[in-house]
Amino acid sequence: DEQKKIRGKTKDETTKNIACHICGAKFRLKRVLDVHMRVHTGEKPHSCMLCEAKFSTLTSLIRHTAIHTGEKAFACPICNIKFRVKSNMVTHLKIHTRVKPFRCSVCNHKFSDKTARKKHFQTHSKERPFPCSVCGIMFGDKKAVRNHFKIHTGEKPFKCNLCEARFANRASIKAHVMTHTGKKLFKCTLCNLNFTHKNSLKTHVKNHSGIRPFSCNLC
């Protein structure tokens, strides 16, 4: 009976540890390997009907389509901020839960997601491989260059839904929205004071640590 069950399964379902012959990555199912191979071949069979964009996976196409529709189907269950992509909501949720599973191997500082840890690690390596084409300032990643470049172009694509204020990047508008909601998500672990902005919390913590990084040149 067991042999009949196995014979009744597809080849995909019974094959394990199939390795990509290019990069060595292993997969449980052949169909997953087939999708992975598009990373190497550049094949993008899924086209957006609203623009010229093409994608290697259907999931990526669905995520992209939300840009056109403006749909934000994933809401944070705590503060109700909405996101187009579920993974972004899950990452955001860690602000509330304070879960930080990703540790820096150099200083043991913890982060809620891999991207934040990678960006932090560049403070140790001092690596800045991405230059601004206008002023030559170097940055650790391409996203930082794009955000910086808006200083030169004056572009402010993020508009507040509650007032007329506009911002160059998503982080700035999120911080601004807090001034409308009155929410203070960042709590000092030493005295329990709450702050609207993370930078305000960092500045406040220095009062406890005794750190005074700025000195007067005259006295």
TrEMBL record:
Domain called C2H2-type: residue spans: 18-45, 46-73, 74-101, 102-129, 130-157, 158-185, 186-213
Subcellular location per the Swiss-Prot or TrEMBL entry: Nucleus
Gene Ontology cellular component terms for the protein in this record: nucleus
InterPro entries: Ikaros_C2H2-ZF (IPR050589), Znf_C2H2_sf (IPR036236), Znf_C2H2_type (IPR013087)
A GO molecular-function annotation: zinc ion binding
Protein's UniProt keywords contain Transcription regulation: yes
Classification via Gene3D superfamilies: Classic Zinc Finger
Entry annotated with the keyword Zinc: yes
PROSITE patterns, A to Z: ZINC_FINGER_C2H2_1, ZINC_FINGER_C2H2_2
Keywords: DNA-binding, Metal-binding, Nucleus, Repeat, Transcription, Transcription regulation, Zinc, Zinc-finger
Biological process per Gene Ontology, one example term: regulation of transcription by RNA polymerase II
Protein name: C2H2-type domain-containing protein
Species in which this protein is naturally found: Clastoptera arizonana (Arizona spittle bug)
